[in-house]
Design a protein that fits this description.
Blueprint (H helix, E strand, L loop, with lengths): L10 E5 L6 E10 L4 E5 L5 E5 L3 E3 H8 L9 H4 L3 E2 L15 H28 L3 H4 L16 H7 L2 H12 L2 E2 H12 L24 H24 L20 H19 L5 E3 L10 E3 L2 H17 L5 H5 L1 H25 L14 H7 L6 E2 L2 E2 H7 L1 H20 L7 H19 L8 H4 L5 H14 L2 H8 L6 H30 L11 E3 L5 E3 L10 H14 L11 H25 L1 H9 L10
Helix pairs in contact: 3-5, 3-6, 8-12, 8-13, 8-18, 8-19, 9-12, 12-18, 14-15, 14-18, 15-16, 15-18, 15-19, 16-19, 16-20, 16-21, 20-21, 21-22, 22-23
The structure holds NADPH dihydro-nicotinamide-adenine-dinucleotide phosphate (NDP).
Family: Belongs to the ERG4/ERG24 family.
Membrane topology: Multi-pass membrane protein
Protein name: Delta(14)-sterol reductase LBR
Length: 614
Amino acid sequence: MPSRKFADGEVVMGRWPGSVLYYEVQVTSYDDVAHLYTVKYKDGTELALKESDIRSQSSFKHRKSQSSSSSPSRRSSSRSRSRSRSPGRPAKGRRRSASQSREQKDDKKKIVQETSLALAVLVLFKPSENNTKRYNGEPESTEKNDTSCIILEQKLKPDLEIKRVLEQYSLRSRKDDKKTEEIFSEKKTFVALKPIEKVPSKTKELEFGGRIGTFMMILLLPATVFYLLLMCKQDDPSLLNFPPLPALESLWEWRVFGVFLLWFSLQAVFSLLPIGKVVEGLPLSNGRKLQYRINGFYAFILTAAAIGALLYFQFELYYLYDHFMQFAASALAFSLALSIYLYVRSLKAPEEELAPGGNSGYFIYDFFTGHELNPRIGSFDLKYFCELRPGLIGWVVINLAMLLAEMKIHNLSVPSLSMILVNSFQLLYVVDALWFEEAVLTTMDITHDGFGFMLAFGDLVWVPFVYSLQAFYLVGHPTTITWPVAAAITVLNCIGYYIFRSANSQKNNFRRNPADPKLANLKFIPTATGKGLLVTGWWGFVRHPNYLGDIIMALAWSLPCGFNHILPYFYVIYFICLLVHREARDEHHCKQKYGLAWERYCQRVPYRIFPYIY
Ligand code: NDP
């Protein structure tokens, strides 16, 4: 096996794929298996290059002084202008004389042609996603649904593009080059680079507040669940009215734990039934695609039938309300045990099956974030299963139990209007998630995050026991709303749902089939990964329209609880924080994936979630 020629941290010249252009890049890592160097451009773009596409800087400097050289730097040497540039450098052209200016113009045109050619070659060859996902330096070009190289090239009209290309690929004097080289070679420019997905290495950039943050979350998140539930049980759930702590032993009951295990197993059995289609997930870092059976909606129907049968045989769902804290404790114990299991098995998992995060070497951090991307027992995918089944379907069952408990406790022949709204809105949300189950395969949870305490706890404890807070609250704090108010809240929920659903569908359909005639009216910025970034439709309105719809719905779920207490609004407040943080994480990943194309998207669509606000 040949040894590597360039060391990590070394500043070298990297060839732009499909072209003869070389840029200054810094080597960030080396993949021994694929024999690829991961290099980073000055604008943050990351790209995997073969050794043959990399040259030392000294070889370029030497050639620059020889005007007859045939290297990529030769053309620039005659005009004291280097083309060994990175896509991120600022333009600093200078006017001298008319002839020089003409010369420069010609040169600019030449650059544009070269750039077009490079792009054309790049698109034509359609390099594999694993490689291309790191290449981001294409010029802006908003197209209809067609990424063919011909159209792309036609769009690069010199007149319109020269300025932009100059800005993007930064023609400037060698003096400026030198300055930039000096800046570039400073170590601080390259600290804390996040390793890209294909090259498994130590997690350097810690999220969620690092070790301390994750430690606090492991303690505080479960405490928050119990705090909220205890508050809800109080007659006066004001924030300052701190609930008395229950005896620890009162939180545990083996029978309840048994029921929880039964529930989990039942859902596991449903998920393994050979009903529903089997689809492939997104390609993993090794190019492999995992298969998933899509039968969440069937599982929901079967669960509904099972619950219906229990009710028919006079089984009291009130038991769930009565032992709610114990159920939460059982789910917490189970998620902790599951997280320990996941952590231990991740230590032995093959490298290509690991998530980019979760390998910091700090136990607490890795335990929290998880390291194995798709832990499976045979064909049973633990993360995928937990994402949508026991917790999500459990949430609906809990809501139903609260509805029945309200009727029983308050001696009602029909549930309150508030309870009906909360149940219906959240039922719609869960049914939607199960109906469009396939869409979960492209979410960050499945494609990027490892499976650890964060997701296990989130899926099994947080979702069912915190998201059902409004229904739990309404049992102890009856709230009367009028029909017009109910109608207004319903309209709000429908607006939120419409935005949420159409935005998600627009993106999912576009990702599945960009050439779909139904999407022909949408425009997008092509990126070198082969994927486009929509800039019209919902995704041209704000950068996360689906989050906007989700937040509007969250508000509609809280409003039926009235304004006596802030407790039922916990969900919407928390959810805004969650989605703002999630948006920032996604933004960071997209910047890495798409580089300049992402920046251009951000310029075109400046607001993240709330138009004109954020
Ligand atoms: P999104 O569905 O918002 O997907 C983000 C990804 O979409 C990006 O990484 C990028 O991936 C792609 N993308 C971004 N911009 C564009 C664009 N302009 N054109 C095309 N593709 C683009 O991410 P989430 O997984 O966070 O959310 C999924 C849904 O789940 C949302 O509706 C959200 O509200 C909901 N959710 C609900 C939670 C809850 O607890 N109730 C918690 C978290 C999320 P790529 O380019 O690689 O395709």
